[in-house]
């Protein structure tokens, strides 16, 4: 058996125990770990075709996996003006003004990462950005990617001049005269204007995706659970895979939206297991609500504006029926559920599906931003995985509850923010991710946020809910061992063991002893996917 890769002088960290293995080297053959041992024994396995890397004491962990990200749509959404660093409305206006000066006549302006907190007590509407955008067709994605601001010229070009009716919970927000304010809530409304803008070519989409995935590999990611398969996504993954240019192992869950009929559900079931060498379609993504910041979450009590009172599915019982059909077909589901009522309904639906007697299907809930005590234990009881994004709490809320998310909920529910600790202690399997492009994808930043719960741009600020922090080992497990379990791959991934996949992340030092606030800066020296290096630092 050919041994194409040997790693020497390594510290091999087992995330299951938090201890270093006694071995100091490993060999890789045919994409799997073929041997563990001391340097002398493993070096002897190398031949002239083997790549031998002296790690000089660096730390090897199983490859880090992002439990929730959107590679293709993220590559699209992050192409344009980055507004995520703008802390107030004046900064947004200045950034837009600079961008407008670079545009050709009639060109569209695309922005992303807009934080609704910059509007303060003002409504989130395009009028706040006049006259900067007068006459300019502009689409500004809010940070949650569930809403956007469209300029008056963009609305005009799209023919959107009043309210619209949708099959799902979506809205063209209008004033008391029935005229659009520019705020579009949820995909169905956003797409009305997005489709009027010039579209990138297939080659442009492919190049943007490839660049984004290379960045993820350089950050230490070897895999991701991709929560969409829209548009050209699957074709792009297949192209990169066949060309040997796919640097992440991807598990893709296509969407099931309200209005899906029996044929659509059947097609999703038949699609399961399709893919290539490094990607496959497995699972289905559904939505139970929107976001708290938009007032489109589903809460058991309305927010302070009287909003967030409805499910994303006009008839939640239809969602329950479809989950049951997918469960009986052996298809795992991943449901976006942010509000407490949404989370409860998903758990109820899974419980009904389990009552059919079918077992072994691992369902997930994504986000889980606020839940009451009586909900926590049900995750473990029903075997539902808790997929969470701690950097959302870190970067978009504040410990003093003066942010938009917290003010909408009020102190009681805002104090139940991202209950990672409580879910872990209740026995739930917690998986961590970024939800990129909503938050940055570097996995060390995600693990750090789970530990310190502070704004990444203000690490001296007080943490939001420090009692909900995870330990360093728990955060690492959530992106290795638990991610493998969520994908049903615990027998071949998430550990450093002979026969397991050679998906590896090599760090300059121990992530368990590196302080949480310093973890994002820990150098990633080497990333290995399926036995081949997808990133290698110049120091090696």
List the helices and strands and how they pair.
Elements: E1 5-8, E2 11-14, E3 19-20, E4 25-29, E5 32-37, H1 39-43, E6 51-54, E7 59-62, E8 64-69, H2 71-77, E9 81-82, H3 89-102, E10 109-114, E11 138-142, E12 147-150, H4 152-158, E13 171-174, E14 180-185, H5 186-194, H6 202-218, E15 221-226, H7 233-242, E16 249-252, H8 262-271, E17 279-281, E18 284-287, H9 316-328, E19 333-337, H10 340-354, E20 364-367, H11 373-382, E21 385-388, H12 390-396, H13 404-409, H14 411-414, H15 420-425, E22 430-432, H16 443-452, H17 472-478, H18 481-486, E23 504-507, E24 524-529, E25 532-536
Parallel strand pairs: 1-6, 2-7, 8-15, 9-10, 10-11, 15-16, 16-17, 18-19, 19-20, 20-21, 21-22
Antiparallel strand pairs: 1-4, 2-3, 4-5, 7-23, 11-12, 12-14, 13-14, 23-24, 24-25
Helix pairs in contact: 2-6, 9-10, 10-11, 12-16
Describe this structure in words.
This protein is of the alpha/beta class. It is built from 18 helices and 25 strands. The strands form five sheets. The protein has a six-stranded mixed beta sheet, with helices on one face. Helix 11 (373-382) links the parallel strand 20 and strand 21 (385-388). Helix 2 crosses helix 6 (202-218), helix 9 packs across helix 10 and helix 10 runs parallel beside helix 11.
């Amino acid at each position: 058996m050919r041994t194409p890769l040997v790693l020497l002088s390594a510290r091999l960290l087992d995330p299951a125990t938090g201890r270093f293995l006694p071995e100091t080297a490993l060999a890789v053959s045919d994409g799997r770990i073929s041997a563990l041992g001391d340097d002398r024994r493993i070096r002897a396995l190398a031949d002239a075709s083997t790549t031998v890397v002296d790690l000089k004491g660096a730390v090897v962990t199983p490859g880090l996996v992002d439990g929730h990200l959107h590679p293709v749509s993220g590559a699209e959404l992050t192409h344009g003006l980055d507004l995520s660093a703008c802390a107030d409305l004046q900064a947004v206006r200045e950034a837009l003004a600079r961008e407008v000066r670079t545009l050709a006549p009639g060109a569209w302006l695309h922005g992303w990462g807009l934080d609704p907190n910059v509007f303060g007590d003002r409504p989130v509407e395009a009028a706040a950005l006049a006259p900067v955008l007068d006459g300019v067709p502009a689409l500004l994605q809010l940070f949650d990617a569930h809403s956007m601001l469209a300029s008056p010229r963009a609305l005009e070009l799209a023919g959107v001049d009043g309210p619209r009716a949708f099959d799902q919970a979506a809205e063209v927000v209008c004033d008391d005269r029935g005229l659009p304010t520019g705020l579009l809530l949820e995909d169905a409304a956003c797409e009305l204007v997005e489709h009027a803008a010039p579209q990138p070519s297939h080659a442009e989409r492919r190049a943007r995706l490839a660049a984004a995935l290379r960045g993820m590999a350089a950050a230490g990611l070897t895999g991701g659970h991709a929560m969409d398969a829209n548009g050209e996504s699957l074709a792009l993954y297949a192209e990169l895979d066949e060309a040997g240019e796919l640097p992440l192992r991807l598990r893709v869950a296509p969407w099931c939206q309200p209005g899906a009929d029996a044929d659509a559900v059947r097609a999703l079931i038949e699609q399961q297991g399709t893919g290539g060498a490094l990607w496959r379609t497995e699972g289905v993504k559904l939505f139970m609500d929107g976001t708290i910041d938009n007032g489109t979450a589903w809460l058991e009590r309305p927010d302070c504006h009287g909003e967030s009172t409805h499910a994303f599915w006009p008839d939640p019982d239809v969602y329950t029926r479809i989950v049951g059909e997918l469960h009986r077909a052996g298809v795992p589901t991943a449901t976006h559920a942010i509000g407490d009522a949404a989370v409860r309904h998903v758990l109820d639906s899974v419980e009904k599906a389990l009552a059919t007697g079918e077992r072994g299907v691992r369902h997930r809930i994504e986000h889980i931003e606020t839940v009451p005590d009586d909900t926590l234990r049900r995750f473990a009881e029903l075997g539902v995985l808790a997929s969470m994004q701690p950097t959302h709490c870190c970067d978009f809320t504040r410990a003093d509850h003066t942010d938009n998310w917290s003010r909408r909920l009020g102190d009681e529910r805002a104090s139940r923010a991202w209950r990672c600790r409580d879910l872990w202690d209740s026995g739930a399997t917690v998986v961590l991710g970024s939800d990129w492009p909503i938050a940055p994808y570097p996995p060390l930043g995600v693990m750090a946020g789970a530990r310190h719960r502070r704004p990444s741009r203000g690490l001296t600020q007080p943490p939001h809910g420090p009692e909900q922090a995870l330990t360093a080992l728990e955060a690492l497990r959530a992106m290795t061992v638990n991610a493998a379990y969520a994908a049903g791959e615990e027998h071949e991934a998430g550990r450093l063991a002979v026969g397991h996949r050679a998906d590896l992340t090599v760090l300059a030092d121990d992530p368990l002893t590196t302080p949480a606030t310093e973890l994002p800066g820990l150098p990633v020296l080497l990333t290995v996917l399926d036995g081949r290096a997808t990133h290698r630092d110049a120091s090696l």
